[in-house]
Design goal:
- One of its GO terms (molecular function) is O-methyltransferase activity.
- This is S-adenosyl-L-methionine-dependent methyltransferase.
- One of its GO terms (biological process) is methylation.
- The protein has 22 helices and 10 strands.
- Strand 4, helix 17 and strand 5 form a beta-alpha-beta unit.
- The chain is globular and about 70 Å long.
- Among the domains are: 77 residues, Arc Repressor Mutant, subunit A (Orthogonal Bundle); 64 residues, no CATH class; 166 residues, Vaccinia Virus protein VP39 (Rossmann fold).
- 50% of the residues lie in helices and 11% in strands.
- The chain binds S-adenosylmethionine.
Length: 468
C-alpha cells in the first residue's frame, strides 16, 4: 500500500477498499474458527459472544469506519449532506414513530414472516393513517426493517434491536413501564423524544449567553432550570424510567474489571488505607476493589436518598459481610461541600465529571484537593475523548487507527463518543473530555495528571492525578 503521505485521493480510496477487504477476511476467519455463520442483516438479531471478541470488534470497527469514509468520498457533497445529515432529522423522527408505536414488537409477535402495513396498523395501539408504509420504507432504505414485497415489512437485524422487553399486551396495558428491561428502544426513544426537542435549541443555546438560555439546550427547550426536576414532573413517569434505563445501559458495557483493579497499584497500599468512591451510587466499583483488595478500607459516598435506600439495600442484602466488618462504609455526602473523609489515600469518581460543566466539575475536585494529603491520589474513570485528527501533544500511541481512517476511528468509535459528548451538552451543558481537558480540569482544582490508563479499545480510561 502506498505510504500515508500520498496525496492522491484515488490511492486513499484504494486504501479504504483494501482495509475493508482485509477486515472481512479477518471476520471470516474468526467466525470459521468457531464454526459459526456470520449473522445476516436480513434476520433478527441474536446477540452472540463473538460480537465481543477483540478481533471481531477491531475488524468491524475498521470496516464501518472505512465504509463511511468511502461514502463521504465518492458521493457529491450535496448527496452526502442530504443523505446523512439532511435526512438525519427524519431518521430520528421516523425512529421515534416506530418505537412509540412498537412496530418492531408488532412484527416480532407476528412471527417474523413479514406483515402487510394494514395488518401492522391494526395491531398498533393507535392505528396510523395511510402514511406509515412511507416511514417504514424510508427506514428500510437505511437498513432498519426490510420491505420483503411491496408494503410487506419484516424486522431485520437492526430493527429487531428496537423490540422492547415486554409483550405487546403489557406495552399497551401499562405504557409507563413499556421501556423497562433495558433494550435499545430506551435509548432511541429517549434521544428521539426529549433529546431531539432539546437539540433544536442547541444552535441558539450555543450562541446565546448561557446564563439567559439556562444551563443546557434541554433546559432552554423545556423552560426549566433542572433536568432532574423535569423528569419528576407529573406526566413524565415513562420518560423518567426510560432515561434511568438509558443511563444504566450506557454504564454497563464500556469497561472491563481490569481497568479498575489495574488503574493504580492498589496492593502496594498498607492495611486499612482509605479509598473513597465519591458519587459512588451503589458502589459497584468499590465492590470490585473490595473483593480483590480486602486489606483496604472503603467509603462509598452519594446523596442521602441513594445511600440510605439503594446502597444500603444493595450491600445489606447482597454483600453484608463488607459492611458488617467495617471494610465498607456507606456515607451520605454532597460532593459540592467539604469532604468529611480527610487525608484519604485515594479518592475516585466514576462517570461523575462528565455530568458537569468544567467550573462545577472543578469545584467537586477542589473539595477533594482540600481534604487530601500530599500523597493522595485522585482517579477519574471516564471516557477519554480522542480528536478526529492525530494529537500532536499525545504521550501515547492513541487508538492506533490505520491510515487513512480518522484518528478516532470515525463512525464506530469517534462517532459514538462524540454522540455521547453532544448528548451531555444537550441534556446537561456537560461534556466528555480530551486528555488536555482532563489536565485543565486538574489545573483548575489543584491536581496534576500523573498517568492515564486506557481500558480495552482505548476510549475509556482512568486519569490518575496527584497533588499539583
Ligand atoms: C452517573 S452516576 C455514577 C454513579 C457511580 N459513580 C457509578 O459509576 O456507578 C452519578 C451519581 O452522582 C450522584 N450525585 C449527583 N449529584 C451529587 C451530589 N451533589 N453529591 C453526591 N453525589 C451526587 C448521583 O446520585 C449518581 O449516583
Amino acid at each position: 500500500m502506498t505510504s500515508p503521505s500520498s496525496d492522491n485521493p484515488l490511492t486513499t480510496l484504494q486504501a479504504l477498499g483494501s482495509l475493508i477487504t482485509t477486515s472481512i477476511t479477518a471476520l471470516e476467519a474468526v467466525y470459521a474458527s468457531h464454526s459459526t455463520p456470520f449473522p445476516s442483516l436480513d434476520t433478527p438479531w441474536q446477540p452472540h459472544p463473538l460480537e465481543k471478541d477483540q478481533q471481531v470488534a477491531q475488524a468491524s470497527a475498521v470496516i464501518m469506519s472505512a465504509a463511511y469514509q468511502l461514502i463521504a468520498s465518492v458521493g457529491t457533497p450535496i448527496a452526502h449532506l442530504s443523505n446523512t445529515h439532511g435526512a438525519g432529522a427524519y431518521v430520528v423522527a421516523a425512529l421515534r414513530y416506530v418505537v412509540e408505536g412498537s412496530v418492531a414488537d408488532v412484527l416480532k409477535e407476528g412471527g417474523g414472516e413479514g406483515m402487510h402495513v394494514d395488518e401492522i396498523a391494526r395491531k398498533m395501539k393507535s392505528p396510523p393513517a395511510d402514511n406509515s408504509p412511507r416511514v417504514l420504507r424510508f427506514l428500510a432504505t437505511r437498513h432498519v426493517f426490510r420491505e420483503i414485497t411491496p408494503n410487506v415489512f419484516a424486522n431485520n437485524r437492526t430493527s429487531s434491536a428496537l423490540c422492547k422487553a415486554k409483550s405487546l399486551k403489557e406495552i399497551h396495558e401499562v405504557p409507563a413501564k413499556q421501556y423497562d428491561g433495558l433494550t435499545a428502544a430506551s435509548l432511541v426513544g429517549h434521544v428521539a423524544d426529549e433529546g431531539f426537542l432539546s437539540a433544536t435549541h442547541l444552535s441558539s443555546w450555543l450562541q446565546a449567553p448561557q446564563t439567559t438560555a439556562g444551563p443546557s439546550p434541554f433546559t432552554a427547550a423545556h423552560q426549566v432550570n433542572d433536568v432532574w426536576k423535569w423528569y419528576e414532573e407529573l406526566g413524565n413517569e415513562m420518560r423518567r424510567s426510560r432515561f434511568t434505563g438509558v443511563m444504566k445501559s450506557f454504564d454497563d458495557g464500556a469497561w472491563t474489571e481490569e481497568l479498575f483493579t489495574g488503574a493504580i497499584d492498589w496492593a502496594s497500599y498498607p492495611e486499612n488505607a482509605t479509598v473513597v468512591d465519591v458519587g459512588g451510587s451503589l458502589g459497584i466499583v468499590t465492590l470490585l476493589l473490595a473483593r480483590k483488595f480486602p486489606h483496604l478500607k472503603y467509603v462509598v459516598q452519594d446523596l442521602p436518598k441513594v445511600i440510605e435506600v439503594d446502597a444500603k439495600k444493595f450491600w445489606n442484602h447482597k454483600h453484608p459481610e463488607f459492611v458488617e466488618n467495617g471494610k465498607v462504609v456507606l456515607q451520605p455526602h454532597d460532593f459540592f461541600t467539604p469532604n468529611p473523609i480527610k487525608q484519604a489515600d485515594v479518592y475516585f469518581l466514576r462517570n461523575i465529571t462528565h455530568d458537569w460543566a468544567t467550573p462545577l466539575a472543578a469545584s467537586i475536585l477542589k473539595h477533594l484537593r482540600d481534604a487530601a494529603k500530599p500523597t493522595t491520589k485522585l482517579i477519574l474513570f471516564d471516557f477519554i475523548m480522542p480528536y478526529a485528527c492525530k494529537d500532536p501533544n499525545a504521550t501515547d500511541a492513541g487508538l492506533g487507527a490505520p491510515w487513512p481512517l480518522l484518528a478516532n476511528f470515525g463512525l464506530p468509535l469517534g462517532g459514538t463518543l462524540t454522540f455521547a459528548d453532544m448528548h451531555m451538552m444537550n441534556m446537561f451543558g456537560a461534556q466528555e473530555r480530551t486528555v488536555g481537558e482532563f489536565a485543565e480540569l486538574g489545573a483548575l482544582s489543584g491536581w496534576k495528571v500523573e498517568n492515564i490508563v486506557r481500558g480495552l479499545g482505548g476510549a475509556y480510561g482512568a486519569t490518575v492525578y496527584t497533588s499539583a
